[in-house]
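User: We ran a pulldown and think these components assemble together. Before we commit to crystallization trials, I'd like a predicted model of the whole complex to look at. Sequences follow.
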Amino acid sequence: MPTTYQNPRFDYRRCADQEPGAAAHHPVVVVGAGLVGLTAAVDLATRGVPTLLLDDDDTVSFGSRAICFAKRSLEIADRLGVGERIREKGVTWNRGKVFLKDRQVYGFDLLPEAGHAFPAFVNLQQYYPEEWLVERAAELGLTEIRWKNRVTSVRQDGACVRLEIETPDGPYAITCDFLLACDGARSQVRRSLGLAFRGQVFQDRFLIADVVMKADYPTERWFWFDPPFHPGQSVLLHRQADDVWRIDFQLGWDADPEEEKKPERVRPRLQAMLGERPFELEWVSVYTFQCRRLERFRHGRVFFLGDAAHQVSPFGARGGNGGMQDADNLCWKLAAVLAGEAPEALLDSYDAERVPAADENILNSTRSTDFITPKNAASRAFRDAVLELSGELAFARRLVNSGRLSVPYANADSPLSTPCAERDGAGPVLAPGAPCPDAPVLDPGGGEDWLLRRLGHGFVLLLAVEAEQPLPADLVALGEERPAIRPLLVSPRPREAAGLPLVIDGEGLVARRYGLAPGAALLVRPDQHLAARWPRFQAAAVRAARDRALGIAAPRDERAEARQVAS
Amino acid sequence: MTARLHTEPRLRDPDGFYERLLAVYRDLPEDEAARLSAKLILLLANHIGDEAVLDEALALAGGAPGADAAAPDGTAPAKTAPAKTAPPRTAARDAGRE
Ligand SMILES: Cc1cc2nc3c(=O)[nH]c(=O)nc-3n(C[C@H](O)[C@H](O)[C@H](O)COP(=O)(O)OP(=O)(O)OC[C@H]3O[C@@H](n4cnc5c(N)ncnc54)[C@H](O)[C@@H]3O)c2cc1C
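Assistant: Here's a predicted model for the assembly, 665 residues in total across the polymer chains.
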């Protein structure tokens, strides 16, 4: 049915591992070339780690699934080299409106401030970023993708993981050191290891209709409760690329999915909503949803990412976005372990950081679902009461929940963060664990750039310097040791930088968003999350914080003290 | 933890309030009555604004064990209580322990 997008077909190719008696071994295998598996493979490739990526299909996502990519995902995609493409092709939006019957009861702006490379959201059909990630993987040249390779069984012992794979030429087996299970909600890896996937099923059905039309709706997220064209239920409208519009009709639990999918059923629903506007049906599906997760995401040498690890309802766009952040979190750690720069114990922090993140996503999407799909007469009464009051009363508007849209997890309790005592007086302080916010910066030559692009994908020491302040002597050494901590000076004005990278915070937005006072030092992790911060630079403290972020056991106190005295 | 929810009698004219409360529900079908109750709860909750107080009320109304109800202190308007046929109504009993 889709007319605006032609799925690419990738050829199955027989490989040497399939020869009898081959017994091939790979350091890292990723199962599933979906949004998350591709993100992981490309992230690892940017860090110089080769992977074998197995997928049971021969193309990217078929039909419409994820469309809303959140700011943080766009920033991750940008680091991987596909962010600009997503932004250019996609539809940028920051605002949403909520209607009750035929009047607006609530409106929001998700990114009310300027000075970010990426907007709050870009809407784009999931197959585009996937296709570009396949291309990016080919460009980087470290990912071997094997299409039509279906993993049927996974076993592990302390030493390695063994996979059985089914292909058009029959089965073969390989082993690997680390396995990233990105094989989606019905994960075969998860089943093969016999892991429970617990949570809540919601008793409701939704009809997705993607239609092609030239419409004059603004580029905003519109959500209706009980609209005249679909009484008693909710409807969601989103604009996508290629003049495709996503319309989501709540149907209720009793609806018959097969009947509801029929064009002769869907068209009248759409006509009631769209009136005289001509449209073409691009894609129709009926779905139910669940909120659930694995108890742990690391199981020995096997890691679960994306829908294989956790599932949320679509309200809030937290599924794909959460999965991309899983990859962002795990890949630098795995790269550090493989490079011998961190102990294997660092990988446990994937659980410590991403399980609570998944819980936050599940909590938010469950709350939205409870609002949209009331479970009993009492919850319906409260929901309707909130909506009725929301027209007149501001307090009730804040209770209206049509989806709390994906924001990155603040990661406040990360074991990798160095706790900070510092509490700057002015402005909000960015706490360790949190993802680094973007801000516009200038090159000393006046060229415009974004701070996140300057952070790159290694450890970075951000140092706030005044124009006249002398630079600490041991900055250069940090950049030369392994693992390197690259210094990046942030100054309100151009200044002499002794050959070190310098950005000018002309608008003062870096200082504001990071809570920087002159002299402050911030250690940024390779995934652009904050690891530690200090009011003053001290090389020993910075090294200790880097080691902590790498899961290296803290040096004994007296040694740390001795180093501090020495520096 | 100090209890912050007032459970001692505070209404100047309890009978009058009760009458007005019932009056807004009179003749309402069940679903509308439920919606009205919900609106009332939301309005009052926002007025109170203190989530600790609201949590206490939720626990008390939901009959949570240990929810701390003030014992009747004798100032309750005895003249309307059906004192002979029923035990004095305490908040805890109203909360579903009966
Ligand atoms: C209607 C709908 C709307 C959504 N909207 C949004 C949104 O707006 N924003 C958002 O962030 N998320 C959204 N989501 C969720 C999002 O689509 C998923 O969270 C996302 O696709 C998860 O990516 P993944 O890579 O983990 O899994 P998948 O995309 O499911 O990819 C899994 C891959 O693994 C492969 N595979 C499966 N089994 C095997 C096997 N045994 N061997 C080899 N390969 C295998 C599959 O072929 C597939 O390529 C939506 C979902 C739905 C259904």
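The interface with chain B takes residues 377-378, 381-382, 384-386, 388-389, 395-396, 399 of chain A (CB under 8 Å). That may be worth checking against your pulldown data before setting up trials.

User: Thanks, that helps.
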